[in-house]
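Example record for the data management plan.
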Amino acid sequence: MNGKIYLIPSEMGDQKAEQLFPAFNKQIIMEINYYIVENARTIRRFIKKICPEKNISEAILFEIDKHSPASEIEAMMQPLFDGHNIGIISEAGMPCIADPGNLVVARAHEKGIQVIPLVGPNSIIMALISSGFNGQNFAFHGYIPIKEERKKMILQMEATAARTGQTQIFMETPYRNQQLFTDLTTHLKPSTKLCIATDITLQTEEIKTRTISEWKKCPPNIQKRPSIFLIY
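Corresponding structural encoding:
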């Protein structure tokens, strides 16, 4: 019998595990010895934090990125066909969202492998429900372009939000957050609403919704702080 794939959420900062994850997650991590991850070092620390009693030296971690060829993905999945379960863990939050784990999941469906998502923090959904924006019709665009395509995308998202009422959600690498904020306040209309959700689940968490004109009067300090941006 083939093994199963468990999609295991990880923390989004230095937070107590019991505040983020149900006990079942720990049980699954204790049982699994095969993992597909972006960064083995980071995930070894996470596993040790969640399950300090687990012998982490016995765990086998395969590293994946968005450029991993199909042959490597097949090799990573081999334990499934030998009857072992595999866990997919992202660098932060839910796996397979702005994360290459989806390549494995897509292949798993083709092979008839059962995929089981576990409960945990999701910064995108947490930001959305805290924004006051439309939670019934929304789009997540992932990482926004960094060069000449950026202005075009910002204006397209604003136009879509105005035309359809659809909330536009996107993110940036934390060290470029302040520049993104500058670009948003430069290109968006003064009346457009922008929510910035920063350090979600952490003690320093800040979630604020303001118009662009209001943001210009009181710019945020979000440089190098994980943030989700929403336009409405």
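Summary line stored alongside the record: The mean pLDDT is 94.
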